[in-house]
Structures are given as C-alpha cells and as structure tokens.
C-alpha cells in the first residue's frame, strides 16, 4: 500500500482561492499535468471567490440562468478573477477581484454549443452574403475578425457568445445577451452580491474541451 503522491508544485497551494502568482508558479514548474489539475479543480470548481461571503447567491443565480438556457445548473460555472480572487491574465496579472469586476461565466453543454455553432454559421453566411451589415467600419472589422477566429474556436470545442452579433436573426445569442444584462441588474439589487457592469458566457462542447482549453491557456500564461 502506498500513499497518494501529491506533485510538489501543487502541494504548496492552500485553500480554494490561491494568489494568482502561486497558481502561475505551480503551472510553470509542474508542466502540463499541473496545468490540467489546476484547471480541473481550482479554476473551475467550488464556491467562487466573488460569492464566498454568500455562496447561496451564486447557486440561485445559476439556477435562474440554467432555466433561461435550458441547461443543468451544474453545467454553469465561473472563471477569471471572480473564481480565484485575482487575475492571471497578462496585463492584469495579480489584479484583485473587485465587486464591479466582470463575470466570466461558462457553460458546458453539447446542446447549447450546437445551437451557438449553428447561429455562428448562419451569421457568417449572412455576413458574407451582405444580408446583415455592420453599423460602421469599426464594427465591420470586428465582425470580419470574429468570422475567421470563430472557425478555429469551434474546432477546439468552444465559442464565446459575444462573437456573434446580438441580432434578432440569432435568437440563442439574443437570449443569452439579454440574460447577461438581466443578471447584472438582478445582482445590483441583491444584498451582499457583487455588482459587475458586464457579464458574458463561453460555451464548451464538453468538460474535456473545457479542461483542455483552460489548461492550455494557463500553460501559455505561466
């Protein structure tokens, strides 16, 4: 009989919300296996830092959002500084979560992913054909970039809701966008809740795709 062997880079991490630099150090020294472990536990599971003072708010939030999206509440989670308490992103590294920080939600649902994939394809078809037009040259440039980038993201098993225009032609995206606005407003009215100005959703096709992408991002930042 042997004890469980804990990788040294992970052994020093204490608590549910380690400092950003501690996570990056563990990822840097532990390689891919540590990145996967960090992505699977610290970066996607448990009570998020943003809701640590009243976890029930997050549970009620995701129950409400699950009904709107027709997914299971367990398929909804949170990443970014709202998850661990500080940012690991380049340019924001170590920046502490504040009540007004953005909420980066993600959903793991093959059904929702399929709907967003179909709407992305519908949008790019209409955009290329001139059926839908950007409001100005700046928006046109963003749309053109998203149309190219989105193909690669879908191939890797995820898509960001904000990459598809919030237009009536794309009802799933429109519903999500409206839901994100309602979510921030409801949080603003909820005692003890964070008050983000902006919330968004990334949808993964499966948990394998989610952990693979999150660990890959972590490894590139470490």
Task: Give an account of the 3D structure.
There is one protein chain. The chain has helices spanning 8-11, 20-40, 55-69, 81-84, 110-128, 137-155, 171-188, 207-221; strands at 76-79, 103-108, 158-160, 199-204. The radius of gyration is 18 Å and the shape is globular. The protein has one domain. 52% of the residues lie in helices and 9% in strands. The mean pLDDT is 97. It contains eight helices and four strands, in the order H-H-H-E-H-E-H-H-E-H-E-H. A four-stranded mixed β-sheet has the order 1-2-4-3. It is an alpha+beta fold and 222 residues long.
Q: Which sequence of SSEs, written as H and E, runs from N to C? A: HHHEHEHHEHEH
Can you give the helix content as a percent range?
40-55%
Number of strands: 4
Count of individual domains: 1
Number of contiguous helices: 8
- The portion of residues forming beta strands comes to 5-15%
Let me know the average pLDDT.
97
The gross shape turns out to be globular
Report how far apart the termini are.
35 Å
Strand order of the largest sheet: 1-2-4-3
Quaternary status: single chain
Radius of gyration: 18 Å
Class from helix and strand fractions: alpha+beta
Low-confidence stretches: none
Instruction: Characterize the main sheet.
Output: 4 strands, mixed
